[in-house]
Amino acid sequence: MSDIQIRTEGQAGRITLTRPKALNALTWDMCLATERALDAWAVDEGVKLIILDATGDRAFCAGGDIAEMYRTGKAGDLDYGRSFWRDEYRMNAKLAEYPKPIVSFLHGFVMGGGVGIGGHCSHRIVGETTQVSMPECGIGFVPDVGGTYTLARAPGRLGEYLGITAARMGPGDAIHAGFADRFHPEAVWPALKQALIDSGDVAALGEAPQAPDSPLAATQAEINALFGGETLRDVLNTLRASDSDLARDALKRLSRNSPLSMAVTLEMIHRLRTPGLDIRKALEMEYRVSHRIMDQGDFLEGIRAAIIDKDKSPNWRHALDSVPLVDVSKMLMPLGKDKLDFRERTMQIGFIGLGNMGAPMAANLAKAGHAVKGFDVAGTTAEGVTSVATAQEAAKGADVVITMLPNGAILKAVATEILPVMDKGAIHLDCSTVDVAAARAAADMAAEHGVEALDAPVSGGVGGAAGGTLTFMVGGSDAAFARALPLFEVMGQKAVHCGASGNGQAAKICNNMILGVTMIATCEAFALADKLGLSREAMYDVVSTSSGQSWSMTTYCPAPGVGPQSPSDNDYKPGFAADLMLKDLRLSQQAASEVDADTPLGQAAMDLYRRFVEEEDGAGRDFSAMLPRFETRGRS
C-alpha cells in the first residue's frame, strides 16, 4: 500500500505513514493495515518493539481522511463512517494495550487521528516542530480516537480547555498535558531509530534532554479557574466575567466551534474522570457520539464549511448559549446492540461441514457480522449462512476456510479439493478431531499452495458450539493463530496455542483420553455409592468439593437430577456422543502406539467404550450413559 509502509528491520517492526501531501491523514485501509501488522508482531518473537513514524516535514498525522465520510454521509450512508470508526477505535485500543513497547516519533502536526495512532503508545517522542491538538469541535465532532481518555487524565482542567478550544500544544505542553513522554531534538531521531532497530530495547533511547518550557503549565491555575464549570454555559459565563488575555482568546475560539460538540465534549470528560478510567471506556463513549454525529449532530455541516465549500461559515444546530441538556444526553445514550464491542473486522469465511457442531459454530460467526458461505454433503444449513453447492465454492475468495469433518481421510480429501482455489495467504482452519498424522499432512498440503494451516479441534460439545463457549486447542504458526484469534473469540471462550501443526490434535486426544477415563471412574463411583446406600446428592456434595472432584462430576454429572443440568437429565441424549468418545480414544491409542507410549488406562477406557457402543446399547447415547450401564452390572 502506497499510503503506509510496513516492514521489519532488525528487531523492530516498523510502520511509516507515507501520505505527506495529505499531511499523512489516516485512511480506513491504513488503519486496517496497521492493525494487521500489530496482530502479527504481537506473537513474533523476532520483533521486540514497534517504531511508528511518518514521512514529510509538516506532519506526523493531521487527522483522519474525512472527505469520504462526508460524501457517503450526505448520500445517506451512515454505515460507512460507523464502520470506519469501529475499526479505527479498535486499533486505538490495541495500540494502548499492546504487549510490546511502541515508540512513536511525533513531528509537525499531530491532530485528531494522529493522536489516536501515535498518542497512546508506550513511548511517545516529540521534537521542536511538534504541534499537538484535538480540533474536532471545529468541524462539529468531538475529540475521539481515545482523545477523551487523555483529556480526562490531563492535569487540572486542561482537558476541558484543550478539548473545546482546540488549542495547540508544543513539545513542552504536550508532555505537561500527558500527550507525550519525552523530548528529543529531531536531528537525533534517525540515530535513535537505528539504535532501537539494532538493540530491540527501549533503553537504547537513553536519557531524554530537558523538554522546552510549557506555557500551559505556567497558566495552569488560571485555566483551572476558567474551565471548572459543569456545563458549557457555566464555562462561557466564567470566561465573559474575566478580562484576561487567556479568557478573551478562549472565547474567540469557542465562538467558532459547534456549540453542541463543545457541550458534549465537556460532559464526556466529566463522566470519564474517574479512578476506573481506561482507554476502552473512553472509546466506547466516543463511539456513542460517532454513531449519531452525522444525523443528529453538526459533523456534516462542519466538514462542509471547513473542507468542502471552505466558506468558514457553518450553520450550527444551536446558538452558543442555548444547547439543551437533553440534546447532550441523547448524544451520549448507550447504543444497545450497536455498542462498540472491539471485535475484529468482518471476514469472508467458508465453512465446510454443517453438522451438529459445525452448524451452530457457523451461525455464531454469521451472527457476529462475518460473511459466511457454508457447504455440507448432507445439504444441511445454518442460520445466517449462505448455502453453496460445493466445497470449492465455499472456499473461493475466503479469508478463512473452516472445516468440521468426521475423520482424517475425509479431511485430506477435502483439502485436496479446496486448497487449489484458496487465495494465497488465506487460512485453512480445521476444527475436526482427526489423527495427528492427518492434521500434519493437511498442513503440508496447505503450505504447498501458499495457504496457512491451523488444526484447532474443540472441546465443549454441541452445547458449547451453540453457546459460543468452546475451547480450541490450536496447532500452527504464531501469525496464523493471531489472525484467527477473533474467530475463536466468537465461537468459544478460550483458544490455546499449542505449538506447531498437529499439536492441536495432540492436545485434544490427550484431553479426551483424560475425559474418557474420568467419566468411567465417576460412573463407577456413583454405581458403587448406590450399592453402599450413599445417596447420590451426598456423593455429589462431598466429591464436588473434595479431592475427587473433576469436570465429569461438577459440570457434566452423569447422575440425573444431581448437579448442573446435563445430558443425564435428558435421558442421556448426546451432548457428546459415546460414539465420538470412542473415536477420540481410538485416536489417542493410535498416537500412543506410533510414539511407543504406555497408556494402560487410556487403553482400558477405549475397550470399555468399544463394548458399550458396539456390543451394548451405547450407540447414539451420551458418553455419560456409562452410569446406567454400571448400575445393572455386578462385579465380574
What's this entry about, in short?
The chain is α/β, with parallel strands linked by helices and 636 residues long.
CATH topology value of the largest domain: 2-enoyl-CoA Hydratase, Chain A, domain 1
Q: Strand tally, please?
A: 18
How far apart the termini lie comes to: 73 Å
- Give the structural class: alpha/beta
Number of helices: 28
CATH C-level class of the largest domain:
Alpha Beta
Strand content: 5-15%
**Mean pLDDT level:** 94
Low-pLDDT parts are: none
The overall number of domains is 3
The CATH architecture classification of the largest domain is Alpha-Beta Complex
Which of globular, elongated, flat, extended, rod-shaped describes the shape?
elongated
Q: Any idea what the radius of gyration is?
A: 30 Å
Q: What is the assigned CATH homologous superfamily of the largest domain?
A: 2-enoyl-CoA Hydratase, Chain A, domain 1
